[in-house]
Amino acid sequence: MATTTTTLSDTQLLIYTRTRIVSTLAKSNPKLYGSIEPRDILLVSLSGNTVQCTLADGEVTLDRSAVIANFWEHRTRTPSFFDYKIWRQVDNPDRNPGVAVGAIDYSILPNKIAVDAHGVRKIYFVSENENKCTCKSWQQLNDNKIKFEKEFKEHGAGGFEVTCKHLKWSQANTRLQALRFLTKASFVGHNPKICVYTFDHKRGLLLYRITYDGVKANGQWFPVDGWKEKPVYGKGGIPTGECWDTLFSALSQAEPFTISRFSHSVAALMNSSRSKN
After folding, report:
1. 170 φ/ψ angles, rounded to the nearest 5 degrees
2. Residue 96 has what pLDDT?
3. pTM of the predicted model as reported, rounded to 2 decimal places
4. How far is CA 273 from CA 43, 208, 265, 276, in A?
5. What is the mean pLDDT of residues 201-214?
């Protein structure tokens, strides 16, 4: 039987996708619905406050508000700190205002801007002040703003705003850099509290090590056993937020840590300095 969808508006088609429905079902009852895949849903229809789904072996009904909430959580998620970076030098033929935020391709050394299936670079121009982004997701929400607001309001899903994951990443990064600047400016003299971090992209782990006495700390600085680990992604590749939490926490201590991204030059400097003490 071919997969079909009853008549939904363009806005509703963006919200009530099979992927979002499956995700909503899995969260509501992992044991019962955890094995359902988007392709298993043969028909989607809306009736009042419910979403009705036809499967090969029966019917499933769920609240529209739950699917809307799942859609919104997905569209407004904050990517990992390591997923994107600010690209200082990038061509901007369209003269788009804002900061160039690009996805990182870790399969290329040195890391470069990732590209989509059509070879187009995944780089977006984000303006936090104007709350704008040049990505397709932001444009979809903006073009259908009134319809989204109506759908959210009528089905009790809370407020709606035009945003995207690139804006969320940029806002989190701005907060991190501002806090980093403030803690650095507040210190007089040497700060012996250091948090060195790196990203193991193959395993999706944040690796970090802290010391309270700077370069005098004993031990190996290279990423080996003994460094603390936190997962950057959860099930389905969804960012856990652990990397942001760790870096913010280091900078928010009563006596904040200096955070430094790991590199072989950083390790060599620390090892060299320690050997002289």
Report:
1. -60, -40
2. 63
3. 0.86
4. 66, 20, 12, 5
5. 87
